Amino acid sequence: MKxxxxxxxxxxxxxxxAVAAAxxxxxxxxxxxxxxxxxxxxxxxxLEIDRGQGREAWGPVAPGDIPAxxxxxxxxxxxxxxxxxxxxxxxxxxxxxxxxxxxxxAQYEAHGGLAGLRRALGLSGEQMIDEMKASGLRGRGGAxxxxxxxxxxxxxxxxxxxxxxxxxxxxxxxxxxxxxxxEGDPFxxxxxxxxxxxxxxxxxxxxxxxxxxxxxVAVMRRAIELAREAGVLGGDVLGSGRAFDMEVRVGAGAYVxxxxxxxxxxxxxxxxxxxxxxxxxxxxxxxxxxxxxxNVISLATVPVIFEKGAAHYAxxxxxxxxxxxxxQIAGNVKHGGLxxxxxxxxxxELVEEIGGGTASGRPVKAVxxxxxxxxxxxREKFDTxxxxxxxxxxxxxxxxxxxxxFDDSADMLGMAxxxxxxxAVESCGKCTPCRIGAVRGVETLDRIKAGDGAAVxxxxxxxxxxxxxxxxxxxxFTPYPVLSALEAFPEEFGQVKExxx
Length: 501
Known about the structure:
Elements: E1 2-6, H1 9-13, H2 16-27, E2 32-35, E3 47-50, E4 55-58, H3 66-71, H4 84-87, H5 105-110, H6 115-121, H7 125-135, H8 147-156, E5 163-168, H9 177-184, H10 186-200, E6 204-210, H11 214-229, E7 245-251, H12 260-267, E8 291-295, H13 296-308, H14 310-314, E9 317-318, E10 321-322, E11 324-331, E12 337-342, H15 347-354, E13 364-369, E14 376-378, H16 388-393, E15 402-407, H17 412-426, H18 432-435, H19 437-449, H20 455-469, H21 473-477, H22 479-488
Parallel strand pairs: 1-2, 5-6, 5-8, 6-7, 11-15
Antiparallel strand pairs: 1-3, 3-4, 9-10, 11-12, 13-14, 13-15
Helix pairs in contact: 6-10, 6-13, 7-8, 9-10, 9-11, 10-13, 17-19, 17-22, 19-20, 20-22
């Protein structure tokens, strides 16, 4: 009998350590393998037992359930892989998360790990770039910029030192994919960064994450030590004679440090303030050297591209949105968690069928996609396919693919005010449209709430200035939740809703 229990931070928050203690007491010498999360957060703590017929699941499990589960008195949910939420997924980036011991390199290799790195070592930098471009992988951190083009810019740059920086400063509300990878499959991220380094000529990498992620920091640091001991990192990567090493740096948790130039300033020990562009980080990034800055999910997806081939990865998706996207479903939702799927599934299917509708049982009113700077989509936009251009065409953005669900009790003017207040608090203060505009936005929304209908025009003008004049996406995207709430729910702003044509 093999026993598996999640040690993901979400599982710990829901009591997995007490369950682990009860298991250890009941099982004696039978070891419990601690794994990452399968992403079904509503079932955490999730216990899996394999008695030779496959891994069966129980969840959510309490410590007092353990004796009855082991005695066979509590039926399982069936085979884990056959639970509908998991069975409907296309797991490429997250294929090992929740399956293996995150710090067992042998298990990682047994499940396809390092195959991509070994293949990459047999290719030239140009061939690796061709593979990345053919895969169609775009930045999963929000901007959606083609990863192969960014890598090629750094590869072609002339410098005595280049860097790979992983942006793991996951600050968007309703997002947890980066944390899940770092806690549940850290070697995947290490492998992706090593491939990026070999491709571009960078020999040093940094994972920049936040102090709110202590478990992820600990797991990543230990995984890097193990990878170095095994020759996956260091001066002789897998015996190739080529060098790449990396380390974890921890920031204080400023939201603006999720913006790549603020992150680089913080990484250098400076205040986290946005830099003007140009120069681009690909040419003058960390310590003014050419630097690849990619999100965790972007880099963690690289190994499967090189393992399976670019054509295999690009075969999934929709239009210019190729491959899979890990959608993080959160908020007032019945089945919250991470759902990895090929681009193209409709928003309505993700919310109503996969997410199961609201946890409160009330009708879904709106969904915010892309974090606190994402647009609110009402039910009339639920047929929008999950894709970069498709969301852009509806006035939204995918961002980091966080989906936060609200029921019909949500105060949309209040949510718009929160967006402006959030921006005012988190602004680095460098540019006037963001620093001053957000404060004026809060004041203007308060006027609207007090019944000043004329202030709606002022709010609209202010949002246009913030969009066009802000140095980075914090000020530039704050108008998205504000204007989308105003468009979808004008009556809550004291406006008359126009009849549909």
